[in-house]
Design brief:
Elements (H helix, E strand, L loop, with lengths): L8 H12 L5 H19 L7 H13 L4 H20 L17 H4 L6 H13 L3 H12 L3 H5 L6 E2 L4 E4 L2 E6 L8 E6 L8 E4 L2 H11 L18 H14 L9 H12 L4 H8 L4 H7 L5 H19 L1
């Protein structure tokens, strides 16, 4: 049997990075490397033996520092990949490990969406102030597109006659360098998964709002800039947050617009399979777990319908 040649976690990571980067999307590799460089190496970098206690302490430390459970689980996913690589190549002894998370509080587990009233306020403002960036927000609310997808959207991706928008690209700023020469760059790539390449119908009122702009622009122009210049996600996110503060609306993360779209679809009796396709998910379970969270009004309606059914049957 091949003798184990123990290496530190940092050395294993460097080797894993070189092998892994030719196998996955550039944006995914960027995310992995940022997590490893920013968090994992600082804690595990010089260790040649990583135990469950080390990892559990890391989890509690990050949660205490204010990271969400999802963020910490993303870190653990990268940690697991690197350790698996090290174990397979006999560079480190991989111990079985299972970590525990504190029970989430209600505030941490709640899905943030705009109320119907707040969404109507925002929508009314956007319709009355149709700038390129505001058109993008309207599209997010009416299609559920991700921020990278809306930043990559061109006028040529919209068919007013068919009333559809075609999603086939995403924009992200990715980490391209290494620990000696770090740098980043804006990258246009295919969406998150093959299922994210999709066509989304547009409501008639949205088409009516877009038509005057579409006639006066070029198909190659990006929606958010009405030019060939890309608006980066971090800049668009900043614009959105500033707008919410100006309108005195709840401080909702940009991704909350996607949750809001999904919630309105569920409230409108949209079936989960259709919603999953609209959101670009690979399977229904992702949609159910992340986006289908009935509001108190939906629950109340369900109870009322049930009681009405029972009452009618008894009569």
């Amino acid at each position: 049997m091949k003798k184990m040649k123990e290496k530190s976690f940092e050395k294993i990571y460097r080797m894993w990075y070189e092998d892994k980067r030719c196998l996955v999307k550039q944006s995914s590799m960027s995310t992995y490397s940022v997590i490893a460089e920013s968090y994992l190496i600082k804690t595990f970098g010089q260790l040649t033996d990583i135990t469950e206690n080390h990892i559990q302490s890391f989890v509690l430390e990050k949660l205490s520092a204010g990271f969400s459970q999802k963020s910490v689980k993303d870190m653990l996913m990268v940690l697991r990949m690197i350790l698996r690589y090290g174990g397979k190549n006999r560079m480190i002894q991989v111990h079985p490990w299972e970590v525990h998370f504190p029970h989430p509080t209600k505030s941490n587990s709640a899905v943030e969406v705009l109320s119907l009233q707040d969404q109507q306020r925002l929508t009314d403002y956007l319709k009355g102030h149709l700038t390129p960036r505001n058109i993008g927000l309207l599209l997010c609310l009416s299609t559920g597109m991700r921020i990278g997808e809306i930043c990559a959207l061109r006028w040529g991706d919209i068919s007013l006659s068919q009333r559809i928008v075609r999603v086939s690209r995403t924009v992200s700023r990715v980490y391209l360098g290494n620990h000696r020469h770090p740098h980043s760059s804006v990258v246009i790539s295919s969406p998150k998964t093959v299922h994210s390449i999709r066509e989304i119908p547009l409501a008639r009122n949205i088409v009516d709002l877009l038509a005057p702009f579409a006639r006066q622009t070029l198909p190659t122009y990006y929606i958010l800039s009405n030019s060939e210049k890309i608006v980066e996600p971090y800049l668009y996110r900043s614009y959105y947050q500033t707008l919410l503060r100006r309108l005195e609306l709840p401080d909702l993360k940009f991704h909350g617009l996607r949750h809001t779209f999904a919630t309105r679809c569920v409230e409108s009796q949209c079936d989960v399979k259709t919603l999953s396709t609209l959101l670009g998910h690979a399977n229904i379970s992702t949609t159910m777990n992340l986006y289908v969270h009935p509001t108190i009004e939906q629950k109340r309606t369900c109870i009322e319908r049930m009681m009405q059914s029972v009452y009618n049957e008894e009569k």
